[in-house]
Amino acid sequence: MDIKHLQYFLEVVEWNSFSRAADHLYITQPTISKMIKNLERELEITLFERSRKQLVLTDAGQIIYEQAKLIDQAFKNLGTELEQLSGLKKGHIRIGLPPIFDAENFLKIIGYFHEEHPGITFQLVEYGSKKIEEAVENNDLDVGVIVLPTKKNLFDYFSIMEEDLKLVLHTSHPFANKEKVDLRDLANESFILFNKDFVLNDRIILSCNAAGFNPTIISESTQKSNIVEMVANNLGVALLPESVCDKLHKNVSSVKITNPTINWNLAVIWRKSQYLSYAAKEWLNFTRKQLDTEKQPMSSS
């Protein structure tokens, strides 16, 4: 059954005439009559009592009429909804963020996007990079912020931030007033790390191994605030991104790490060859443009 069959039927009922319905639709009367006949044949019912001078719906015709109105309205609503999606009047974006990430500037970009498209809603979830990749791969998230490298065969991405990790330690620690500390000098320290869902966990352990020691890990957490609080209570040392270290507890200091330095590169990823909503595509384009604008040097007056 074609939606046109039902729409032509509705026109005949509304105008109470095949000829007037045909005129309104800019088609010939034989055409609309044939469409109604085809509809009756397909449904195996009679829609009109044709023995009378006026068109009168049969009982079955009345049922079809009521349901056809609902179907026609749903079809029109579908068109409206799709127009709203393509016009970014509606939409929903699911974004994964790592808890270690200082997301202030990133959330500002989301705010700017929302100002331009107030009908778009956001779901923000906090996972480690490994879980974010898994969620994007399984279409549980549209996009995610992760620590590079990522699986290039599965994901498209663009970088949003690159910075070094710094040593975070209690202000009473002997290294607290140093300008920099070699990583190998931390061989006897107790480490507080993010848990194994975080790529940073692997990155730190591998870097320590490269410096000649296996770190002693006394605690793991999923929250940077808990890690900082443990350091503030002199339970151990941590390695955190530089941007996080700019907002540390008063009992905590941060020092540059050398030999080797440890860095992280954050990127926004999305699944290759997978459907992305209008809203998610536009948000990706918007975010990339905002980041490019922030990177441009300010002109001197």
TrEMBL record:
Residues 1-58 form the HTH lysR-type domain. Coiled coil: none annotated. It holds the Pfam family LysR_substrate. Keywords: DNA-binding, Transcription, Transcription regulation. InterPro entries: HTH-type_LysR_regulators, LysR_HTH_N, LysR_subst-bd, WH-like_DNA-bd_sf, WH_DNA-bd_sf. It comes from the Bacteria. PANTHER family: HTH-TYPE TRANSCRIPTIONAL REGULATOR YBHD, NITROGEN ASSIMILATION TRANSCRIPTIONAL ACTIVATOR-RELATED. Belongs to the LysR transcriptional regulatory family. This is LysR family transcriptional regulator.
